[in-house]
User: Fold these one by one.
Assistant:
Number 1:
Amino acid sequence: MRPPVTRHHPAEGAARRPYRLLIVEDERRLALSLAKGLAAEGYAVDVVHDGLEGLHRAGESPYDLLVLDIMLPGMNGYRVCSALRAAGDDVPILMLTAKDGEYDEAEGLDTGADDYLTKPFSYVVLVARIKALLRRRAQGAGASRVHVLGELRVDTAARRVLLAEDEVALTAKEFAVLEQLVTRAGEVVSKAEILDAVWDFAYDGDPNIVEVYVSALRRKLGAGLIRTMRGAGYRLERPERPETVR
């Protein structure tokens, strides 16, 4: 028998459908504390304490966002995230972990997670990250825009990248970094601007994480596409005037 899901819903009478969040966290006191606080913020929150159960719940019912711990029984958070992305589920995922360090963050985000928070963390920061991810998802639901730079074609609404007609698989964070560069092709975009747009103002990790993702993009799209402007930031080179298809 599968374990029951703990549900925390906002007070009745809300003006709109509340965002549905799933918390997958084996520290029960922390999970329930977060759930109660987020329900008070107006979210409808479900809680499970096992990675495999979290994967089942996320696959059965549409959620607006997942808060996913990494060290979980049943299936760790990396595998849960990777399985969801492999199944085509693009739900925003905020990963939680007691680990720290750039490597762990890059590993988590490379599985397809959208953001990362290291324990212990501020509840205020958690709420800010959740709001930023939900806002980013809502903004991405607008009209399609396709940016064409030579053989590179980036659809920022469909979140697809083609290079010489071949589709290139990018993680959620890789795509977000590329989006900041392609929408300002030919301009210098600073590391701070990328951090603010992609990781949110509340990010408190190593700012060099941007370099990790720029390096990943160079490996996948070509070393000469993104140029480092020392002391200033990065510039996406354009061989010709870029086109924007509406």
Note: The first strand starts at residue 6 and ends at 8.
Number 2:
Amino acid sequence: MASLKRSNTGKHKRRCDNCGKVGVIEKRVTRIYGRGRNALVIENVPILVCPYCGASYLEAKTLHEIERIKLHRKSFAKQKPMDVAIFALQAGVAM
């Protein structure tokens, strides 16, 4: 987990555990756990991201909540239709 550092304004800034630079930010993402009919989509998951090295972290409290949601998925999940696409490069497309 990113460590905290107090700035001149009194607010805590997070230091990246990977590169050591201060400035780790929180973002919200959608994560998919499982596959096929057993897939569980969890929206609005908070992650910490370092804008310098690109490292991303999940805090322990977030991991615990994800496990709780997965364990009790019937009470948390809502059924929604979901489009699924399969990635495939077309012949002749340069990368």
Note: The chain has one domain: 3-76.
Number 3:
Amino acid sequence: MADGQKPARSGDGKTRVSWKTIVLAILAVYALVLILLNSKQVKVDFVFFHTRTRVFFLVLLSMALGALIMWLVLRSRRRRTGGDRSAPDSDASATP
């Protein structure tokens, strides 16, 4: 390995596969199946225009817009509450 770590080995000398690698492989296969099953083209009507695209791209667009909206909401909440919510508020008892 590049960073000097040796692969994990079981007692019989065989290399073990980590659970993260297995989950990543399953997700990769799932993504491939999702692409293949949703390759049909559909007409999409946006507010000011329409276009034809594959269903898979609509799914990706929806996920990206959802992530953007969630990020914007969390960012505005952090600014409104005054910063990082994970840090303990030690000055709360010092306020008059």
Note: Residues 19-81 form one domain.
Number 4:
Amino acid sequence: MPTEEEKTQILDAQMSSPDIPLGSAENFLLTLGSISDLEQRLRLWAFTLEYDAIEAVCTDKSYSTSVALFVLWLQFVRIKMYILNTVCLVQVGCLVLIYWLNY
């Protein structure tokens, strides 16, 4: 990105000799200098290019977390069923048939 000093030097050179056309590098720098908020636009463009990769990483982490929480919930339900079966065995004296969560 051209600095203000570079832009003024190019414009001064163009004013001092208007019959000589600017080179491609000078035209390119003037074009870049004429774009408002160029640095912010370039950062936004870079972010949009990387967004898919960032989204994939975040999605994988949240998916892994939800799977882990579901497995913990299943373990909790399994423990509650063991406790219920033990209480029924002690209270009633017979084994109560309940659903066993085997996975």
Note: Residues 25 and 75 are 67 Å apart (CA to CA).
